[in-house]
Amino acid sequence: MDEADGALDDSPGRRGRLHGRLLQLLGVVSAVAAVIALWQFVVFGDDPDRDPVSMAEGLETLSIPEGSSSSGAVASVSASSSPIESPSESSAAATSDAPTSASAAPSSSEEATSGAAEEAAPASCTASLTVEKEWDDSVEVHVEVVSTGDAALGAWEIDLDLRDVDIYNHWNMRDLDHGWYGSEDWNGRLDPGENAVAGFQAETDDRVELPGSVSCTAVV
Q1: How far apart are CA 66 and CA 22, in angstroms?
Q2: How confident is the model at residue 204 (pLDDT cuts 50, 70, 90)?
Q3: Beta strand 165-171 pairing with 155-159
Q4: What are the residue ranges spanned by the domains of the chain?
Q5: How many CA atoms lie within 13 A of 194 on its CB side?
Q6: Which of residues 20 and 147 earns the better pLDDT score?
Q7: What is residue 172's three-state secondary structure?
Q8: Which of 31, 55, 142, 151 has its CA 20 to 30 A from that of 109?
Q9: Is 147 in contact with 125 (CB distance < 8 Å)?
Q10: How high is the pLDDT of residue 51?
Q11: By percentage, how much of the chain surpasses pLDDT 70?
């Protein structure tokens, strides 16, 4: 009778069922190993200095003692893999504080621009006209340009486009066309409070009244 029981135990059907359970168990272990490898890639893929967990170490936790059933093995695999944090949660936690620290610190270019704007002082000038000589149809005019700003100016330009006035001679200034005249190379730079003297002669109509001042533009 014992020999008959032994023959039944070694039957092909019994061996087939055992092989099927072993294949199922190997499939579950392979799936868990793939999940662990994917999790390592997502979490530690951007950190070249971190030593990744080897596949062998991950598989050691899934070792199944001899004689355990396939259902018990699946339960132990699920229990061992449950504490793993999802990649989406870990990525969100790692990047949640980044925008606040980046936005709080001003850039060096903004600090340099604001500092240059505070240090820069405006430059300005005025130009006054004084009639020195007057004839029936012409005049000689004295021009004085004064630096009135808080910073030195590198050059100056004045508007002498006056109605019924035709300049035919001038000195200590250059003709810039369209009635504008500018400083020479040697009298353009004026510190605050300094002045430059120029003049012109012009033909005029009868009873023309020249303005006491004209527009002056400071060139830094």
Answers
A1: 12
A2: very high
A3: unpaired
A4: 2-101, 125-219
A5: 15
A6: 147
A7: coil
A8: 151
A9: yes
A10: 54
A11: 56
Share of the chain above pLDDT 90, in %: 41
Strands in 174-175's sheet, in edge-to-edge order, are 174-175, 180-182, 155-159, 216-219
Neighbours of 153 (CB within 10 A): 25
Instruction: Please report where in the chains the tokens 């621009």 appear, as a residue.
Output: 113
Query: Which residues have CB under 8 Å from 19's CB, separation 6+?
Result: none
* Amino acid residing at 3: E
Among the listed residues 169, 124, 171, the one whose alpha carbon sits nearest the alpha carbon of residue 143: 171
Cα 212–chain centre separation: 51
What's the gap between Cα 77 and its chain centre? 49
Provide the 8-state DSSP code for 212: S
pLDDT in tens, 92-135: 444 445 444 444 455 555 655 555 544 556 999 999 999 999 99
pLDDT of residue 73: 43
Q: How far apart are the first and last CA of the chain?
A: 118
Alpha carbon distances (Å) from 30 to 16, 33, 70, 74, 142 = 21, 5, 14, 12, 100
CB atoms within 10 A of CB 148: 17
| CATH fold of 125-219 | Immunoglobulin-like (2.60.40)
